[in-house]
């Protein structure tokens, strides 16, 4: 019997029992695949839980669907990070999609996910998907005015993904979007990573005219309360409406029309964090 702990801060962590552990060292990070009785298979990068079979649907649905729905006709989509394939799987549920580009820095994450997490990575072989093994920041330099939706499914802002939380990076994201494009990023926990959360929000508001923050409950991410920041210059994200039949056609387990209707209903303490000092 083995217990794995993700240290959420210096003072608190999540401990999960694992029955089996596989370890792979890639060029970029240590990859662990744990078999856990509670959460099923779990993917851990450099000690941080990225995804688990039991709760991945919550994060992936909530990351992908609001932005996809707020766009009238999303055809070209880019996912940065997200080598496990969960976000790509959700994006492909939208019938208008013609092309999904996945830009993941670490090829090993994709190989491991296809081998051990078929229910998450299974759609990476879809003919609409093209995979680029590259740093997301570099990748965007060559793509101007191309995507309808860009989704930042990146690791926590340390190491290789730190740059993906900077103002300069969000400027590149904006240039890579078509006129009515929308971007969304996972932006950490307001409870345990308040500084990262506020920083991401402030950088994104420097670059985009319309910005909104919403939350979801992800049990295996620090504190469980997880934030997403969605932004666009031309789409007023906070008042975007959507045809309910588009929502009903998505086969989801967490996201639904009621959640979409009150997407931006934030607890007061989170609203306060977003007020300018
Ligand atoms: N789908 C939920 C899993 C992730 S994975 C984040 C991915 O981002 C990792 O596979 C990592 O290799 C990749 N990545 C990191 N930096 C870059 C970069 N610069 N360019 C492209 N890909 C990158 C998200 C987990 C959220 C964790 C919450 N605690």
TrEMBL record:
Task: List residues binding spermidine.
Answer: 60, 84, 153-156
State the top-level EC class: transferase
Q: Which residues form the PABS domain?
A: 1-233
Per UniProt, what is one Pfam family of this protein? Spermine_synt_N
Q: Keyword set for this entry?
A: Polyamine biosynthesis, Spermidine biosynthesis, Transferase
Q: What does the record give as its pathway?
A: Amine and polyamine biosynthesis; spermidine biosynthesis; spermidine from putrescine: step 1/1
Instruction: Indicate the residues that form the catalytic site.
Output: 153 (proton acceptor)
Which residues are noted in the entry as S-methyl-5'-thioadenosine-binding?
29, 104, 135-136
**Catalytic activity reported:** S-adenosyl 3-(methylsulfanyl)propylamine + putrescine = S-methyl-5'-thioadenosine + spermidine + H(+)
For this protein, the record's InterPro entries field holds:
PABS, PABS_CS, SAM-dependent_MTases_sf, Spermi_synthase, Spermidine_synt_N, Spermidine_synt_N_sf
Enzyme Commission numbers on file: 2.5.1.16
Molecular functions per Gene Ontology:
spermidine synthase activity
Gene3D superfamilies, alphabetized: Spermidine synthase, tetramerisation domain, Vaccinia Virus protein VP39
UniProt xrefs under HAMAP family: Spermidine_synth
Family from the record: Belongs to the spermidine/spermine synthase family.
Quote the subunit structure annotation. Answer: Homodimer or homotetramer.
What's its job? Catalyzes the irreversible transfer of a propylamine group from the amino donor S-adenosylmethioninamine (decarboxy-AdoMet) to putrescine (1,4-diaminobutane) to yield spermidine.
Q: What is the name attached to this protein's record?
A: Polyamine aminopropyltransferase
The root-end lineage is: Bacteria, Pseudomonadati, Aquificota, Aquificia, Aquificales
Q: Which gene encodes it?
A: speE
């Amino acid at each position: 019997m083995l217990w794995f702990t993700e240290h959420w801060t210096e003072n608190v962590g999540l401990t999960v029992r694992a029955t089996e552990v596989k370890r792979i060292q890639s060029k970029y990070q240590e990859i662990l695949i744990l078999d856990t009785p509670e959460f099923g298979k779990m993917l851990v990068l450099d000690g941080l839980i990225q995804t688990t079979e039991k709760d991945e649907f919550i994060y992936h649905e909530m990351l992908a669907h609001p932005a996809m729905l707020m766009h009238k006709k999303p055809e070209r989509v880019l996912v940065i990070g997200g080598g496990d394939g969960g976000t790509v799987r959700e994006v492909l549920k939208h019938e208008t999609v013609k092309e999904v580009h996945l830009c993941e820095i670490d090829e090993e994450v994709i190989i491991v996910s296809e081998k051990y997490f078929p229910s998450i990575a299974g759609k990476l072989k879809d003919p609409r998907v093209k995979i680029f093994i590259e740093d997301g920041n570099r990748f965007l330099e060559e793509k101007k005015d191309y995507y309808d939706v860009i989704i930042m499914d990146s690791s926590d802002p340390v190491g290789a993904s730190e740059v993906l939380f900077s103002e300069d990076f969000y400027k590149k994201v904006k240039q890579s979007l078509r006129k009515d494009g929308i971007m969304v990023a996972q932006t950490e926990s307001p409870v345990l990573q308040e500084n990262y959360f506020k920083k991401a929000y402030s950088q994104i508001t420097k670059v985009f005219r319309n910005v909104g923050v919403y939350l979801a409950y992800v049990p295996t991410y620090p504190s469980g309360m997880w934030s997403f920041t969605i932004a666009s210059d031309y789409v007023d994200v906070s008042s975007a409406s959507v045809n309910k039949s588009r929502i009903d056609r998505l086969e989801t387990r967490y996201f639904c029309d009621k959640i979409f209707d009150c997407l931006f209903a934030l607890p007061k303490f989170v609203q306060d964090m977003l007020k300018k000092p």
